[in-house]
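tool_log.txt
---
The assistant was asked to compare two proteins side by side. It first ran the structure predictor on the initial sequence, then on the second. Raw inputs and outputs are pasted verbatim so the downstream comparison step can read them without reformatting.
(1)
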Amino acid sequence: MSQNWKIQDIELDTHLDWVGLCDPTDYTISIVSHQREEATSITLLHELFHVMEKTLHLDLSEEVVDTLAVSTYHLFKSNPDLLERIYGSTKKN
C-alpha cells in the first residue's frame, strides 16, 4: 500500500455504471466529477477500501466496502481532530 496512487477526475458518462474505480495495475483511482462534495469524499474512501482489499487479498462485499466508506466519512467529519492526532499537525507555522 506504499505505492503512490493517482486520483483522477473523470466526466460523468451515462454509459458508466460506477462513480469510482481503482486500477491496481497503474495505481489510479478514477472518480466521476460533478458529484456532491460528500458523495465525492465517500466515493474516494470507498475506492481506498478497495485498494486495501486488493492489496491485502481480502474478499469484501460491496455492501461491506460501502459501510466502511460511509462510516469512516462520518467518523472523520464528526471528529476532525482524529486525523491530526493520527498524522500530526498539518498547520504551517
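(2)
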Amino acid sequence: MKKNNQTRGLLKGGKIGNKGGTGRPKKEIKELCRNVVFNKKLIDRLVKFASGEDVHQVVNDEGEIIPIPCPPKVQLDAIRELLDRGWGKPSQEIQGTFNVNTIIDEINKRFE
C-alpha cells in the first residue's frame, strides 16, 4: 500500500505548516536575551562552569559548608559553548561525488 503525502507527514499544496505555532521570537525578547549576554552575566557563568569551579554549596548536619564541584558534562558543555562562540563551530568537510540532476530527480520522485 502506497502512503499518501499526509500519512507520510508531508504537506499538500496550499496547506500551512505549524498551524497555530509560536513562530519566531519577538524582537523585544531577542533584545532582552542579548542584553543579558552583553552584560557578561551568562558569559561569566559559562567561564565559571568551564573552569570547573564549585557551582553550589550545601550545609551538612554539622553546619559545615560543603562545596559541590561542577559536573564534568556541564564543564565540557560550557567549554564547547565558549569555543563555538569565540572561534565558531568547526567546519565539517563533505567528500564525495554526486550528480545534481540525479539528486533533483530523486527529490521529485518522492513528492509525486
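---
observation on (2): The two ends are 15 Å apart (CA to CA). The chain has a mean pLDDT of 77.
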